[in-house]
């Protein structure tokens, strides 16, 4: 009984920690993104609030909270309220299965550094990332606006297309690790990270992940000034902010997934595992930001062509080849 | 090799942005760093004085007429000695587009554009400048110019007494 209680408390503590760390990370990623993009364009970026502009996220939060919150006439109120939360929550939930470090010894107990070591963690992740589509769909639909609806449909087409290649790129990883559990996948990379063993899968996954997080060069869903944004056209204030935060949480999640699937998770020499994990995640986030500073947006037809005619066939081919090679090695 | 070109075109920009990230930003950080605008910069408008310290403006309404947004208004008045001046003179800087047409139009060099661009204000009423706010104790761009030394009716010098003027013509003498 007391064992069970301790477990519950531990899980709650871990949840709280993850929640705090993740939200801070999301807030500071926004800031880091603005600073880094600024430097890439020979500007400074936000540097007014606090030392080096470090209080900018707080200022942004105050601004978003005090802005007028507008609900369009004829909007489906309940769904309109829920949609932004849905976008953020689905992203947050994924973190339940991400392992940060190997289990540690605490007061004579094995404490796994993951909220819940699901043995089908990969499926859970894929399922939740498909669920994230709901936030977009409902947000666009509940706004009672043609622009939002069209934008939502546009985004959905993109998200679903790239969801496919993302799922297909994970299959070789599962084949190589012989497990659906994220912890096992990390442990299977003790020899070499899957990035080196299967670079095509990594590339496909990376590209699909960038598309999944709705970022440049796949940021058709949020082309704010050019094609009136899309699914969040009618959102304002903190509700819009939630979509925004959701996007950045999503970025952290997807970076951790890249880390777990291809970069060997917490594995690494010298430094403690958790540092390696965060370093790798941050490196992935930096790559996202870097891409945003570098590439132009794809046109919509190019985007769909690329997804369906290049990524999906390549991913399928990669699954077959990886399977064949694994069988050959074994045989 | 189109594919090769595409791949190169996708990868190379990454190197360029990375390199630029370590360059020094070119931004001028405004409140701390200020640039001196060029002398012909068109910002806050001033009313200048002639070398003797008198108001140059003769309230001829030309600036007001030239202004495309109608933001100058004034009331003409005349002194005992015949010198004209503006009883009040008002520029509404919330409307002014700093085109400089008023300064072009002015025959006495009274109204001039200055390079002082820091006149923002949260309260629009504070941007309505009266004559006291506009008048400065200086000649501005051409310090030496004094309109009444060249024209005007017997204020600085007797009629026709200015150096580039003829004396009054005796209208009886030049009859045909
Ligand atoms: S600068 Fe142009 S707009 Fe401003 S007062 Fe002069 S004429 Fe009018
Ligand atoms: S400022 Fe110049 S143009 Fe305007 S009323 Fe005075 S003298 Fe005339």
Automatic annotation (TrEMBL), chain A:
InterPro entries: NADH_UbQ_OxRdtase_su1/FPO, NADH_UbQ_OxRdtase_su1_CS. HAMAP family: NDH1_NuoH (MF_01350). It comes from Desulfuromonas versatilis. Its main location: membrane. It is found in: Cell membrane; Membrane. NDH-1 is composed of 14 different subunits. Subunits NuoA, H, J, K, L, M, N constitute the membrane sector of the complex. The chain crosses the membrane at residues 6-31, 78-101, 121-141, 162-180, 192-211, 248-267, 273-290, 310-329. Belongs to the complex I subunit 1 family. It comes from the Bacteria. PROSITE patterns: COMPLEX1_ND1_1 (PS00667), COMPLEX1_ND1_2 (PS00668). Its EC number is 7.1.1.-. NDH-1 shuttles electrons from NADH, via FMN and iron-sulfur (Fe-S) centers, to quinones in the respiratory chain. The immediate electron acceptor for the enzyme in this species is believed to be ubiquinone. Couples the redox reaction to proton translocation (for every two electrons transferred, four hydrogen ions are translocated across the cytoplasmic membrane), and thus conserves the redox energy in a proton gradient. This subunit may bind ubiquinone. It catalyses: a quinone + NADH + 5 H(+)(in) = a quinol + NAD(+) + 4 H(+)(out). This is NADH-quinone oxidoreductase subunit H. Keywords: Cell membrane, Membrane, NAD, Quinone, Translocase, Transmembrane, Transmembrane helix, Ubiquinone. Coiled coil: none annotated. It is a multi-pass membrane protein.
TrEMBL record, chain B:
[4Fe-4S] cluster 1 binds at residues 57, 60, 63, 106. Residues 48-77, 87-116 form the 4Fe-4S ferredoxin-type domain. It is found in: Cell membrane. Keywords: 4Fe-4S, Cell membrane, Iron, Iron-sulfur, Membrane, Metal-binding, NAD, Quinone, Repeat, Translocase, Ubiquinone. It is an enzyme of class 7 (translocase). It is a peripheral membrane protein. SUPFAM superfamilies: 4Fe-4S ferredoxins. It comes from the Bacteria. NDH-1 is composed of 14 different subunits. Subunits NuoA, H, J, K, L, M, N constitute the membrane sector of the complex. Belongs to the complex I 23 kDa subunit family. This is NADH-quinone oxidoreductase subunit I. The gene is nuoI2.
